Amino acid sequence: MSKVLLIGSGNAHKAEELATLLAGLPWEVRSLKDFPAVEEPEETGETFEENALLKARYYGRHFGVACVADDSGLCVDALGGAPGVYSARYAGPDCTYDDNNEKLLDELEEYPWHQRTARFVCCAAFLEPGGEPQVFRGEVEGHISVEACGEAGFGYDPLFVPSGEERTFAEMTAKEKHALSHRGRAFAQLRAYLESH
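RE: above sequence
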């Protein structure tokens, strides 16, 4: 019988993307909507690794199952690495993806293309009851576009142009994005770990 693997994310878009990245494993991948409602943990970590582990521990312990959680964000060089761990709430506590994108474009308005370098970072944490936590990190370098382009993806995808590409993540198919993305890279490592254990 396959074991339950919970995706510890309250973000429906992210949970869907992670389920795709974990498909085909000998685990029964479940999302939080398959469990009784529970408050989201406060993300108090100062790094992506800390927040990913915090979420995996919180949900895994709460429901007594193996849990995978990730923390990811955008680090813009011209902004000293911001928004970083605050990527989801960059424009304020109840902001939308569009609010965050508008704020970022405003902050970078005066910067030419060569100064708009950035990277997406993802840390994926896996924890089984009674086991040692495992954390995997993926990064992708790129630039911030001067305007939002594309309808796919979520978050900062319409603004992020990965190195060597002319399209934003939001202009790519899910398959194209996963092949390049920070989340795709972190979860490829996690998959390899789960397949070998």
